[in-house]
Write a structure and sequence with these properties.
alpha/beta; Alpha-Beta Plaits; 8-stranded mixed beta barrel; Beta-Lactamase; 604 residues
Length: 604
């Protein structure tokens, strides 16, 4: 029952002649006690002010909220005097209480409905509702909404900030850019997109916990370089953004980008791990590169893509030519995704020639894409794109199956050599794929050679070694390709018993021109001999190179001196001609001037 209804009931009872005066007084006392209990248990602070502006009643919550002692209530005391006794409210009134009183009385006397205001009381937020009464005066309710305001602020912060780094997120960055572009800013603004190079390797090898700490450290480093006119945001997994609102001249922005790349490339020590990453940056400047958020963000992203394509660890400003390049690449991506289903891939084979005596040991399988519109597409164009699209693993499996099947048509003991990619190792199905290719084709395992590069060992050496040992137990041979181009080639020879090393063609080209290249070849031959490892020299194009390699003790060679990569349908005829005299063999070789410059395009 509400108070109003209760009052009506008892008012009716008071009219009964059977009630004595004492009973009526007791009943009124009970009602008063009930009202006091209700008043004291209401969570808000409440006070009643009569039509004269004097305090008629209040609860303890009101006294506590305004900082008054429990005995400070004095019935009939002017409400403004009560407020002036409160340290919290005194600050609201200032030195003169009259203007505050005038404002208050005009608020409650001229209104017929409740009004509300928020005020700060001693570092707390109070919601004050003034409810005028029809009989005059008002009811004042005081509600401490500090925690509610803090909760609202926390919710707003969470909605606009990254949980891991506490930097502004993409949505807040968008709003700030829109605000920046809506004003007349003489120097415009610049948007930088920053992508961390090799961050995925950190997550894959050291775990996401280390990766998260690294992202926090990166956020700190970027923020340390930021001035008051710079906004730093995290917009994706390993992507950050910087909004510069002053000094956006190209030279200034370039210096800032260089400092960021340098600072982010310094090593990080995280829980005992020495972590090294890099950064690539794309830059778009308003208004010339975009007059709104969508255009500016799109062009900064295109510039970032161009920076990563250029080799990472660099920055690029947006240029209109980038859009045309990206559109062309998107078209190529679509065609590449359809290429497997349309059977547009094919393999060519380049002979591996034994030097003592000179005979064919096998062939290296080299991937080609015969696009119906573009013709033969250079592997250097589509292999990196296939890696980005996640297609290199299925393409690699197709190469394995087809190469093994083709090799079964060659006479024993010719082998086929197939290049493996980093993506195939990461896919966790490489061993099964090799076993399946051998089983389906019927090729003896010893006739399959798998080539890996040193860069694969850098990602997760122990995991790679585990896979290599499983492949080795299967009976296939393992070769290290491009030997000598990395810093740790020799150490990897100690970790795993490779069957063969392939000397990179850069050293072969240096024969007769660079003494240091010849010295490296002699050193590698010595190591191979001492470890019982076979050797193959890549890119052999002249008799002088062949003679040097032969004298150095190289076992095997491949290159245009012997043959260009040949379509699979020519291999049987090539093998037959190889057994003939030299003039017949020469008839199968291309003219030198038709193959210059093509050797570098042979990427499997």
């Amino acid at each position: 029952m509400n108070i109003t209804d209760s009052s009506r009931v008892h008012a009716g009872e008071f009219q009964e002649p059977s009630l004595t005066r004492e009973q009526m007084i007791r009943e009124l006392t009970v009602q008063q006690d009930r009202l006091k209990v209700i008043l004291e248990n209401i969570p808000q602070g409440i006070c009643f002010v009569d039509e004269e502006g004097n305090l008629a009643a209040c609860n303890r919550t009101f006294l506590n909220l305004v900082g008054l002692a429990a005995d400070a209530f004095e019935h009939g005391k002017p409400y403004v005097d009560v407020l002036s006794d409160s340290p919290a409210l005194r600050d609201q009134m200032g030195s003169n209480e009259q203007p505050y009183a005038a404002d208050y009385f005009s608020m409650v006397s001229l209104k017929t409905r409740a009004t509300a205001e928020q005020r700060w009381f001693d570092h707390r937020v109070m919601l004050i509702v003034h409810q005028p009464l029809s009989t005059g005066g008002s009811i004042e309710t005081f509600d401490d909404i500090t925690e509610s305001r803090r909760a609202d602020a926390r919710i707003a912060h969470v909605a606009t900030h990254d949980a891991l780094t506490d930097l502004p997120n993409r949505d807040l960055l968008r709003r700030q850019i829109e605000e920046a572009l809506s004003h007349e800013i003489p120097d415009g603004c610049a948007l930088m997109y920053i992508d961390l190079d090799r961050f995925k390797n950190v997550n894959d090898t050291l775990g996401h916990e280390i990766g998260d700490v690294l992202l926090q450290r990166v956020a700190e480093r970027i923020s340390q370089h930021a001035s008051n006119c710079v906004v730093v945001a995290r917009i994706g997994g390993d992507e950050f953004a910087v909004l510069i609102r002053q000094d956006v001249e190209h030279g200034h922005v370039s210096m800032f980008a260089e400092r960021l790349i340098c600072g982010l490339s310094d090593s990080y020590t995280i829980r005992g791990h020495n972590v090294v990453i890099g950064a690539s940056i794309g830059i778009a400047i308003a208004p010339e590169d975009g007059a709104n958020w969508a255009e500016l963000a799109k062009h900064a992203d295109l510039a970032l893509y161009d920076a990563k394509s250029a080799g990472r660890g660099c920055y690029r400003f947006f240029d209109v030519a980038m859009e045309r390049s990206v559109q062309a690449e998107r078209a190529l991506s679509l065609e590449l995704q359809q290429a497997i289903g349309r059977h547009e891939f094919e393999l060519c084979y380049q002979p591996l020639v034994n030097l003592h005596p000179q005979r064919i040991n096998g062939f290296e399988a080299l991937l080609r894409w015969r696009n119906p519109k573009r013709g033969i597409v250079n592997p250097g164009e589509f292999v990196p794109l296939a890696e980005e699209l996640g297609l290199i693993a299925p393409i690699g499996e197709w190469v394995l199956r087809h190469a093994c099947w083709r090799a079964t048509r060659w006479p024993e003991p010719l082998r086929v050599s197939v290049n493996l990619s980093v993506a195939q190792f990461r896919a966790n199905g490489l061993v099964d794929a090799v076993a399946s290719a051998l089983r389906e084709s019927g090729l003896a395992p010893h006739r399959l050679e798998l080539e890996i590069t040193e860069s694969m060992m850098l990602d997760d050496t122990q995991a790679v070694l585990s896979v290599l040992h499983r492949l080795r137990r299967m009976g296939v041979s393992i070769a290290m390709d491009d030997f000598g181009t990395g810093y740790s080639s020799l150490s990897y020879l100690k970790m795993f018993p490779f069957d063969r090393v392939k000397i990179d063609q850069s050293f072969t080209r240096g024969i007769g021109q660079r003494p240091e290249a010849e010295a490296v070849i002699w050193a590698v031959m010595g190591i191979c001999k001492s470890l019982g490892i076979d050797s193959t020299a890549e890119g052999v194009e002249t008799n002088a190179q062949l003679e040097f390699l032969s004298s150095a003790g190289c076992n095997e060679a491949q290159g245009y001196l012997f043959s260009r990569p040949r379509p699979e349908q020519e291999i049987e005829r090539f093998l037959a001609a190889w057994e003939l005299d030299e003039s017949s063999r020469a008839a199968l070789l291309p003219e030198r001037d038709t193959v210059q410059g093509i050797a570098q395009e042979d990427v499997s």
